[in-house]
Q: What sequence folds into this?
């Protein structure tokens, strides 16, 4: 019989958290709530609902919340007989439906996957009620995540997921904020973990977030792009470098043609062309070198 534990990161979620815990408890053996520096009654609500609690003295971000939860599960699995086979992550704001947990963990129980991503956007599933402005941002983040990870995920920012206990050591959990969703997908892809997606529903009428969605989306996107520097140096360095190098070469040919036709060449433009050519070449070679180093490190690991 598989033992299941749920991890719920929570920051000022006193309104919905109690219901989430009680509904989730029907499908799991234990619930760990990470009270991430909440200023409301989140911790008291979690205690009354019967959850195990980890409290951060201040708000550290969702990524740190998940890290605290995963660290506790790993510690329990290593030091006690209460071994948890499956970890479910679910948001504490009530947007996710705990009744979908059996569907979420089914692929792991059946040996079909070790990482199950709940998706609002699986083709043919009528569960996408995402507001239009959010969907545009989601598509951008999905595309960036897929480029960075080499996956084909339809909902990279989903926080409703299930994991086999065997996956825990492969997650670096470096990102402290909401970029953690994309980071975990990239870590799993890099480790060769089998990932599948299952359809989920989301209630947007319960959205209690106070963060500007544009600011949030841009922040996550910048973190994904930064992550490409290490995971996809060819894309991050070599391709832009090639474009810059090509611009420099074409411009150089154009200047040379002017010179051969007796036209006086502007010194400033000539310097810019030389800089572009050298910079492009440097970026291309840098990307190739870093990619070789990355492959060598991964091979040794």
A:
């Amino acid at each position: 019989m598989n033992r299941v534990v749920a991890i719920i990161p929570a920051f000022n979620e006193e309104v919905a958290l109690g219901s989430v815990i009680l509904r989730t408890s029907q499908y799991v053996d234990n619930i760990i709530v990470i009270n991430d520096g909440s200023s409301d009654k989140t911790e008291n609500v979690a205690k009354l609902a019967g959850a195990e609690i980890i409290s951060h003295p201040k708000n550290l971000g969702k990524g740190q919340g998940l890290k605290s939860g995963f660290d506790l599960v790993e510690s329990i699995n290593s030091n006690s007989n209460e071994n948890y086979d499956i970890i479910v992550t679910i948001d504490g704001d009530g947007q996710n439906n705990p009744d979908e947990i059996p569907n979420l963990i089914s692929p792991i129980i059946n040996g079909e996957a070790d990482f199950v991503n709940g998706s609002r956007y699986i083709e043919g599933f009528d569960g996408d009620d995402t507001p239009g402005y959010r969907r545009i941002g989601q598509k951008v983040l999905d595309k960036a995540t897929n480029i960075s990870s080499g996956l084909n995920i339809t909902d990279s920012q989903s926080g409703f997921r299930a994991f086999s206990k065997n996956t825990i050591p492969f997650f670096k959990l470096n990102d402290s904020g909401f970029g953690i969703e994309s980071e975990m997908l990239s870590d799993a892809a890099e480790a060769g973990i089998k990932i599948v997606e299952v359809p989920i529903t989301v209630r947007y009428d319960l959205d209690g977030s106070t963060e500007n969605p544009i600011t949030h989306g841009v922040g996550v996107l910048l973190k994904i792009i930064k992550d490409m520097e290490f995971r996809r140096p060819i894309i991050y360095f070599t391709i832009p470098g090639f474009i810059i190098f090509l611009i420099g070469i074409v411009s150089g040919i154009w200047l040379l043609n002017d010179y051969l036709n007796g036209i006086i060449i502007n010194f400033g433009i000539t310097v810019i062309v030389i800089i572009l050519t050298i910079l492009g070449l440097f970026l291309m070679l840098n990307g190739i070198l870093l990619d070789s180093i990355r492959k060598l490190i991964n091979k040794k690991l």
Notes: The longest helix spans residues 267-300. The chain has a mean pLDDT of 90. The two ends are 33 Å apart (CA to CA). Residues 4-231 form a domain with the Spore Coat Polysaccharide Biosynthesis Protein SpsA; Chain A fold (CATH 3.90.550.10).
